[in-house]
Amino acid sequence: MIELKNTTKLYKTVIGINDLNLSLGPGTYGLLGPNGSGKTTLINLILGQLRPTIGSVRLFGENPWRKSELLHRVGLCPAVEMSYPRVSGLQWVTYMVQLHGFGYSESVRKAKKALETVKLSHAMNRPMRNYSLGMRQRAKLAQAIAHEPELLILDEPFNGLDPVGRYDMSELLKAWAEQGRSLILASHILHEVEAVNPLFLLISGGRLLASGSPQEVRSILPDSPYTLTIRTAEPDQAKRLAGLMIGQFEIESIEFKSNNCFIFSTPTASKIFSRLPELLKENEISITEMSSEDDSLKTLFSTLVKMHRGEMNRGVSS
Amino acid sequence: MKRWLNGALATCSFELRRSFTVQRTAVSLVLALFPPAIMLILILATRLSRDFQAQTAILDFSQLLIIFLVALVCLLTTLLWATPNVYSEMEGKTWGFIASRPGGRVSVFLGKFLASFLVSFGVSVVAISLCIFLVDRSYSMPDAQRLWLSICGVFLLGCLVYSAVFSMFGTLFIKRSMVFAAGYLFGSDVILASIPGALISKLTIRYHLQEIGIAWIGWFLPASYNEADFRLFYGEPLPTWIHLAILLGITAAALALGGWTIVNREYITKDDA
Fold first, then answer.
1. What average pLDDT score do residues A215-219 get?
2. Taking CB atoms and an 8 Å cutoff, what residues of chain A touch B15?
3. What angle (nearest 5°) sits at the alpha carbon of residue B111, between those of residues A50 and B245?
4. Of all helices (H) and strands (E), which one includes residue A265?
5. Size of interface A-B (CB pairs under 8 A)
6. Which residues of B121-148 are buried (b: 16+ CB within 10 A; e: fewer)?
7. CATH number listed for the domain at residues A226-297
8. Domain definitions of chain B by residue range
9. Is A25 on the interface with B (CB under 8 A)?
10. Is some CB atom of chain A closer than 8 A to the CB atom of B1?
11. What is the H or E stretch that residue A7 is in?
12. How far apart, in whole angstroms, are the C-alpha atoms of residue A261 and residue A289?
């Protein structure tokens, strides 16, 4: 479905994508990477909106830069927050479908169906300036699916959605994937992408760092250097617990924030997670808080970058 | 081709619908009413002065004045509508949605050109009609209906060719397309077209429109300017169909170059880079 061979994209002297090799068959993919990692550039290369500086890109076996007809088979939901304030959702989605070459009445029918799918029928005649961020996000999704593409590419589709909206979006994408259609979901938040159970593509600095199933990706996470904060119920317990932990686990650094709170860094977080409850019970120590300062993806990427540099050996297929 | 045309019509209709706002309608109305307002002021001023010579001069200059004032308005409308064709989509962050459609780029280019042509011609027709009505009511213009038709004909061509050229500028220069288009207009159709006897002046759009105007409207410059003297400086005209063919050729060439550019150019947004 998608093939990139030694693809590099430069924006003058800035690297967007760096010597990327990728071959994706039909399926569900989660394109993960921090902001500025090259996700949008990769999507634009796949869609023929950008021309690779070096290398080649193939979409459905053809060069997308030269063959815009291929775009009929793709639906794109970009990350950007567009502004068509005075038109209604229905007018906009209809227009987007018309640009695929459909007649007006057929476009209206397809637009209505898509807006119903994303649960926006009730507001489809309202000007988009009155839409909430979540409603605009759903309208964007509607224009991407209205012409019934084979491949759906979504760039940060969860942005601005409330928890209910996120759940609805996840359900919708799961249903899309279950229909046997292909999906590429770009995001910088791991657990959002994980909900649709894709094959992960981890990208950073314009390079593909790794790829793998959610289980493979999760397997890296627990043993990545982790910074954790622990707050004990009683002031004297913090120092005692820290001493016990230093004796039993591999602790890289420890810092006391107050007499009942300390922050520590460990490369064996999974061991601590499994043994800590027992340790607390045995020593009659109670804690009121245990939290991680790193979000999962940040930790994952710092781990992958270290692997990439040869500073760590463990890893997934890359 | 059919997809492009369908897409162009859809874009034109979408553009006109979404631009039907109080602000944009007011701007178009002000532009359409500007020439008749100036004409009315001149007519009232000469009437109040009771100066017979001034009143004769107004009638003598009326055709030139109408054409000049409407041309200003027509060019401004075309600049406003045609040149920001790509920039407005990039600024509104809607470019990605359009460009990810098969033939979306060409459809938008042609659709916006069409919208620019329709709006500028509409504004011009309103302005021409009101101007001729005012002069006719005040001084009984001879053959006002034929004059209206021929001026409208010249402006139909003018709106078509300038919309195409400015649309092309919109694809070539993203951020300052309006400045470049205005610069071209001033350099080519104001300065170059005014050089008497120069071959280069014959390469300008204004020269061909001017010759078609003389052929269709008749001698629209004031009677004090002799056509023979004018010909001495600017040379004999070519047959009207050749001027017409050149203008249509410029339109086709501008659309082809603009269409080629919009398809083959990477439009990199801030979000990409």
1. 67
2. none
3. 110
4. strand A261-266
5. 97
6. bebbbbbbebbbebbbebeebeeeeebb
7. 3.30.70
8. 2-264
9. no
10. no
11. strand A2-11
12. 9
CA distance B206 to B193: 7
Q: Is the ipTM of this complex over 0.85?
A: no
Nearest to B169 by CA among B99, B118, B116: B116
Distance from CA of A134 to the nearest CA of B (A): 17
Give CA torsion, residues A316, A220, A24, A110, to 10 deg.
170
Asked if residue A45 lies in contact with residue A52, where contact means CB atoms within 8 angstroms, the answer is: yes
Sequence ranges of the domains in chain A: 2-81+143-212, 226-297
pLDDT at position A218 over 70:
no
CB–CB of A78 and B104 under 8 A?
no
Alpha helices in A48-198 (DSSP H): 89-98, 104-117, 133-145, 163-178, 190-194
When pLDDT is cut at 50, 70 and 90, the band that residue B65 belongs to is confident
Rounded to whole angstroms, the Cα distance separating B49 from A305 reads 85
Domain A2-81+143-212, CATH homologous superfamily name and number: P-loop containing nucleotide triphosphate hydrolases (3.40.50.300)
Q: Which of B6, B97, B99 sits opposite A98 (nearest CB)?
A: B6
Integer Cα distance of A301 and A307 in angstroms: 10
Residues in chain A, overall count:
318
B133 lies within 8 A of chain A by CB:
no
Distance CA A91, CA A112 (A): 10
Nearest C-alpha neighbor of B182 from the set B72, B106, B267, B262: B72
Query: Using CB atoms, which residue from A70, A74, A96 is nearest to B97?
Result: A96
Structure tokens given for A58: 């193939």
Residues of A in contact with B271 (CB under 8 A): 40, 78-80
The C-alpha atoms of residue B48 and residue B39 are separated, in whole angstroms, by: 14
Q: Are A296 and A190 in contact (CB under 8 A)?
A: yes
Q: Which residues of B touch A11 (CB under 8 A)?
A: 268, 272-273
* Residues B94, A51: C-beta atoms closer than 8 Å: no
Q: Do B269 and A103 touch (CB under 8 A)?
A: no
**Pairing of β A199-204 and β A207-212:** antiparallel
Does residue A44 surpass a pLDDT of 70?
yes
State both tokens at B61: 């200059």
Structural contact between residues A222 and A316, judged by C-beta atoms closer than 8 angstroms: no
Which range of A205-219, B189-203, B249-263 scores highest in mean pLDDT? It is B249-263
Residues of chain A with pLDDT > 90, as a percent, come to 18
